[in-house]
Amino acid sequence: MPYDQGVAARLRAAVMRARPQALIDERKMFGGIALLLDGSIAWGVLKSDLVIRVPDTAVALQRPHTRPFDFTGRPSRGLVYVAPPGFADEGDLDGWIALGIAGAQAAAKTKRPASRAGAAKARARAR
């Protein structure tokens, strides 16, 4: 099943409300879409569920309508699924957007520095 275009449109609109000046990169991933903030996945849509990067998975999983992101069969640390009832109203969706921002910022802080070769390739691509 392809990802829900209506959910994707709501997600994009909510992200733009929260971060109108941010450079958001959208990519197809996992059979859905992922929106990256500063190079880290912050939000996504898979089927009709949101995928949210969170700073603390255990805390996020205590919220209603969430479950572990286990796309490969193993739960991924830092990502959760949110079923449609969990973001039915705009206030709930905006809360997930804020959590995705915090999760992406936390993920960016823990990334290992790029190797010299990788950094050189990135600079070359940017030119």
Summarize the topology.
Elements: H1 5-18, E1 24-29, E2 32-37, E3 40-46, E4 49-53, H2 57-60, E5 66-68, E6 79-82, H3 90-110, H4 116-126
Antiparallel strand pairs: 1-2, 2-3, 3-4, 4-6, 5-6
Helix pairs in contact: 1-3
Structure characterization notes:
- The protein has helices at residues 5-18, 57-60, 90-110, 116-126, and strands spanning 24-29, 32-37, 40-46, 49-53, 66-68, 79-82.
- The termini are far apart.
- It has 4 helices and 6 strands; from the N terminus they run αββββαββαα.
- It has a 6-stranded antiparallel sheet with strand order 1-2-3-4-6-5.
- The chain is of the alpha+beta class.
Number of strands: 6
Largest sheet, order of strands side by side? 1-2-3-4-6-5
Q: H/E series, N to C?
A: HEEEEHEEHH
Helix content: 25-40%
The average pLDDT value, as a whole number, equals 89
Which labels suit this protein?
4 helices; alpha+beta; six-stranded antiparallel beta sheet; globular; 127 residues
Short description:
With 127 residues, this protein is of the alpha+beta class.
